[in-house]
Amino acid sequence: MSAVARIVSASLRSSLGDSQELVADALLSGRSGVTSLPQQPPAQRELLYYPLAGKERAGGENCLHAALESCTAEAIRNSGLGQDVIARSALFLGSSSYTVADEELRVQGQQGGAMGSVIPAVPCGAMAQELAGKFSIHGGSYSFSTACTSSANAICYAMRAVNCGRIPAAVVVGIECFNRTTLYGFEGMNLLSVDALRPFDRERSGLVLGEGVAALVVTSDAHCGEQAGWRNVSLRGGATGCDPYGFTCSSPESMATVMHEALAEAQLGADEVVLVKAHATGSESNDEAEAKAMRSVFASGMPPVTALKGALGHTLGACGVVETVALLSCLRRGQVPAAVGFCTADPQLGVSLLTDTAHFSGGSVMMNHFGFGGNNCSFLLEVVHP
Amino acid sequence: MSERYITSLASYISEVSEGGGELKELVREACGEKPRRTSRMIDLSLLGACRCALGRVSEGAGLYMASGFGNIADTSELLRQVVVDEVLPMPLTFINVSSNMSGFYVAQRLGLQRQNIALTSSSGSMESALGMALLDMDCGLVEEAVIGIVEESVYPLQEYRRAMQIPEAMPVIESSSWMVITSVASDSALGVIRLSQHYSDRRQAAEALGSIPPATHYVSADKPPPDIRQLLDARGIRALPESFSGTNASIAGCRFIQALEEANHRSLLYINCEAGGGVYLLWVERLD
User: Fold this and answer.
1) Residues 6+ apart with CB under 8 A from B264
2) What is the pLDDT of residues B131-180, one digit of tens each?
3) Of the partner residues A132, A143, A184, the one whose CB lies closest to the CB of residue B119
4) Which residues is A201 bridged to in the sheet?
5) Which of A92, A131, A136, A181 has the maximal Cβ count within 10 Å?
6) Angle in degrees, CA A321, A152, A59, rounded to 5
7) Any idea what the Cα angle at residue A238 is, between residues A237 and A240, rounded to 5°?
8) A90-142 pLDDT, tens digit each
9) SS3 of B65, please?
């Protein structure tokens, strides 16, 4: 690779607020954005959820498009890149549910009508195409559909496209908004926790879903002008792998492989990693597999490990970008947030998460993501403490 | 770009009839076993992928799949269950709706353990899947890539026709077209990718078209805009006789792979002109 891909700006909408500052404040004070949804059929109980907290949520039931546009606009504006560069850039978008929320409203509106079709009329990829058109991004648009690794993969491919000089910059977006299909799908599989998302905790009992929209702009030094928002965050390398033998939970071996490959692409040793952001969904088997993989990769010494889903919820396909931006909002202040929801270490896991905010003085940070369909993704950030 | 070589091609494009036909049996023939607990989208993916790549690729090959509508049948069923019937989704339907589940089954059958990327694209499945595969090759991450474009339909077909606004006179098509590409030249290569490039404006694309030889035939989802059409006509680059106008870009991508497989034309061009002005060009020459 010939260039270093830098993250020069970012924006975030989450259950903890609609700015990076609000989210950092909340994360560093150990707050959670969880709430309880009123019981509605077909659920037999009140379900926990992490809804968007900002003005987009206040604007109506389906906040998808407003949040997507405002978030993307903010990241592009703060990147300092000129429109000539943005026009030659590409859009990389990751989501699990894309426009399912729109489709639910459409079907609901047609109930009792003459058509009543449940067949989606808009392809998933239309979201990225429309967004690219709105911001005059003409270098291509790519919509990743790899379940919970969708936007993490979007980051990796954006990094490669910039590093190879194929495009001058990339706009990377992760989005997940409330929809009943996803929520009740997880409920139907008994994967949702009854009381709390407790990542890596001995008492963990499942995941809790959440909304999130985040965007970041990646470019190389050649296009990183005087006006660039950030200058201290780069993408060192990343890897994607698949485990074709467990469609709801990858094996520890395949998770470890993708972490090793990410380290190799970043030309880093495991002992050079100063922090790991675990995927840590709070589910019994996934946390166990992830912990085993981490013990294998960091056999000579486990760096500090944190996790964000206890604070932000599991934002599924958006979590790659959402958690990257949320974590960077804290790291750029020189602090690592504690893992909300983690209280008691599980001796079976052998990995503890941070229970207190920690000091961060810069270095290489591993970001791990694992999804349905055996999709695994790991990448390395390099953060220079300002 | 560095030249990349096509080593295998397989395409299944079929007009569908109510009930869906004998797809499971075709999959059994191609894969050596009858798939269980799989959706139609997964079956279509397995059919094309196994015909193209079973026993012909190494475990280090990357897998790149794209679709316009993805698992539209399972998505429709989930919407029916949750919104109309207000019941909890069936777990298997919910699992299979993930767009990367097709890739999971394909990777399992082909024995792949590296990249398994599922993309959705309303306007360009070909450039999405091939684009990410070529990017990984350019970065030296994979030497071999399995690339597939898959589109399914939904039953009952009348409802599907209404939702997609497909006229009665036009056939409803399902497709699963695949190719294997490598970064290493070999005597057994079927074709070479001379150009795969997305242009952010039409002037650049027009310049690139100047390097395409006159005997080339092209496939395009929609009629190219007048300026591009004029250039194609002037260079003697002709459309394949079959009309795919009005179908989506994924089907056009599948047709392109099918035309490569048929080997009736030595030089083939895939053109996708986007509404925003961008143009994607893929030019392949057969080597046999």
Assistant:
1) none
2) 999 999 999 999 999 999 999 999 888 889 888 888 888 888 899 999 99
3) A143
4) A345
5) A92
6) 35
7) 160
8) 999 999 999 898 889 888 885 544 346 899 878 888 899 999 999 999 888 99
9) strand
CA angle B203, B245, B216 (to 5 degrees): 55
C-alpha distances in angstroms, A175 versus A164, A171, B18, B30, B218?
A: 26, 13, 36, 37, 36
Distances (CA, A) of A312 to A18, A210, A281, A305, A341: 12, 7, 11, 17, 11
Contact A125 B98 (CB under 8 A): no
DSSP state of A223: G
pTM score, whole prediction: 0.96
Tally Cβ neighbours within 10 Å of residue A330.
22
A137 with A75: CB under 8 angstroms? no
Q: Which residues of A touch B273 (CB under 8 A)?
A: none
Tell me whether strands A5-14 and A233-242 are parallel, antiparallel or unpaired.
antiparallel
| CB interface of A with B, residues 12-51, below 8 Å | 41-43
Predicted complex ipTM: 0.95
Q: Note which residues in 199-238 of chain A have CB less than 8 A from chain B.
A: none
Interchain CB contact of A251 with B (< 8 Å): no
For residues A337 and B97, give the distance between their C-alpha atoms in angstroms, rounded to a whole number: 34
Asked if A83 and A136 count as a contact pair (C-beta separation under 8 A), the reply is yes
> What single string gives the DSSP state of each residue in A256-287?
HHHHHHHHHHTT--GGGEEEEE----S-HHHH
Cβ-contact A360, A335 below 8 angstroms: yes
Question: What one-character-per-residue DSSP string does A297-350 give?
Answer: HTTT-PPPEE--HHHH-B-GGGHHHHHHHHHHHHHTTTEE---TT--SB-TTT-
Nearest to A181 by CA among A268, A98, A78: A98
- For A263-285, how does the pLDDT look when each residue is reduced to its tens digit (9 = 90+)? 999 999 999 999 999 999 999 99
